[in-house]
Design brief:
- With 317 residues, the chain is an alpha/beta fold.
- It has a single domain, classed as TIM Barrel, CATH 3.20.20.70.
- It contains 9 helices and 10 strands.
- Strands 1, 2, 3, 4, 5, 6, 7, 8, 9 and 10 form a 10-stranded mixed beta sheet that branches.
- Helix 5 links the parallel strand 5 and strand 6.
Length: 317
């Protein structure tokens, strides 16, 4: 067995601590085996400008997830009960597809929802390096990660891109089946900050080379949760951290009739959170136009998974 993949034996990669033998077909919370289960490898131009630039980022979308957010925009591939034969790939196939996209000019490779597939992610990174490829490696994570797992990635990941979702346990439990999310995510973020600090390194081409960018998605009716997340970052990490404040929440079919999540975020809600962002002293990051929310929804059943709206410029570069 690949040495890295052996990490998923008696799997305790993420806070679920299922302790199942994935290589033997045992299924834990995420119902993932030790295979390379990847729904899509594609070019995406709709990320923050320092990640995608003019040539886009090569995003690798893992299937299933260690959080089951009821509102997940990637619900077509993230639901743990969903499975398709076409999702199982050979690592060499994955590497060849990434190389093909890199040949087109992309300089960054983003691993999307990799928390339950860290050995597979590291294997891909090592194979690319062995073949002489050295793009910027981005871990696009939900932040429901063990701090110890993040420590083990210090030599592999150039950019951490966590989505800090909740500071309210009740929301984390109700929306994502993870009441311990706030404390787990705080420790994961502290470790990412310890490794990268507040400053990001930008190359002459305008593409990030190293650093930490924290995303926060404003949810409808949950202004206090958003403000609490921002206060933690400012007070426990630094107001100099780059924050991407997202207004792109849009109800997907699974939550279309949800009493709380069945609507988009209003401009007034987003503006209230944005004002707190400014009050806390954040000056580096990105904002979104609330009216563009529906444009960010992916569709994994079509060749062009994403439309490509732009982020607004940061309050200060």
């Amino acid at each position: 067995m690949n040495t890295l993949l052996a990490e998923s034996e008696k799997c305790d990669l993420c806070p679920r601590n299922c302790r199942v033998r994935r290589s033997e077909g045992e299924l834990g919370y995420c119902r993932s085996t030790a295979d390379f289960n990847i729904a899509a490898i594609c070019l995406h131009r709709g990320e923050e400008p320092v990640l995608s630039g003019k040539d886009g980022i090569c995003n690798v979308f893992f299937t299933h997830c260690n959080l089951q957010c009821v509102f997940c925009q990637n619900y077509q591939i993230s639901r743990n009960e969903t499975n398709r034969n076409g999702w199982r790939r050979k690592p060499q196939e994955v590497v060849r597809k990434i190389e093909e996209i890199l040949t087109g000019g992309a300089k960054t490779v983003g691993f999307v929802s990799p928390s339950h597939c860290v050995p597979q992610m590291r294997t891909i990174i090592h194979l690319l390096k062995e073949r002489g490829n050295r793009p910027v490696f981005v871990m696009n994570t939900n932040a429901y990660d063990k701090a110890g797992t993040i420590r083990g990635l210090a030599d592999d990941i150039d950019v951490y891109l966590p989505d800090f979702k909740y500071m309210v346990r009740e929301l984390a439990d109700s929306f994502s089946q993870a009441p311990d999310y706030p404390e787990v995510a705080r420790e994961a973020l502290r470790e990412m900050f310890r490794q990268k600090g507040a400053e990001i390194e930008i190359g002459p081409d305008g593409i990030i080379r190293d650093g930490l960018i924290i995303r926060h998605l404003v949810l409808p009716g949950q202004i206090e949760n958003s403000i609490s997340c921002l206060r933690f970052i400012a007070e426990e990490l630094s107001p100099c951290v780059h924050v991407s404040l997202m207004a792109q929440y849009h109800p997907t079919p699974p939550v279309a009739d949800h009493p709380l999540l069945g609507r988009a975020v209003t401009r007034e809600e987003y503006e209230e959170v944005r004002k707190e962002l400014e009050r806390l002293g954040f000056e580096k990051g990105w904002l979104q136009e609330p009216e563009s929310a529906g444009q960010y929804l992916p569709d994994f059943n079509r060749p062009e998974i994403f439309s490509q709206p732009d982020f607004d410029p940061p309050p200060e570069s």
